[in-house]
Amino acid sequence: xxxxxxxxxxxxxxxxxxxxxxxxxxxxxxxxxxxxxxxxxxxxxxxxxxxxxxxxxxxxxxxxxxxxxxxxxxxxxxxxxxxxxxxxxxxxxxxxxxxxxxxxxxxxxxxxxxxxxxxxxxxxxxxxxxxxxxxxxxxxxxxxxxxxxxxxxxxxxxxxxxxxxxxxxxxxxxxxxxxxxxxxxxxx
Length: 188
Description:
A hairpin with a 2-residue loop joins strand 5 (about 95-100) and strand 6. It contains seven helices and seven strands. By secondary structure, the chain is an alpha+beta fold.
């Protein structure tokens, strides 16, 4: 087993609006965060905008490959900005999805062909133009990026293109000083 992570990013420079949307998500839509209705516990999220002024990054313990996408979809219904989710599993798969208004607008799964066949993976909505536009990727950089099949290379390249690191997960915060400095803890 290799390294895994999941995170989401809101294309916004309005931190207050993002915090309000995350508060609503936590209080009114806790089901996507794995919260049972009778559960009376606060939701802990880690929020950062230190790496890129156009994106606000969010980490939560419940985010893993398979759950973060549901959270991104619901959050995009609550906020008027694109929401990008990234799920990286065991160094075999990197799934990138972009949502707006509760609808997946673009998705790309970076993996080797054998992995795609073994997990029966297919993009829900492959829309290169939307992906390029939402992520502010230059036309000439997109073809090289979308043809990458090695997950870690795709994460590195996307981090470079959007000018923020995607190598982050809530579970890593206690162990990595850089993440502790970049992310602030919020309880909702």
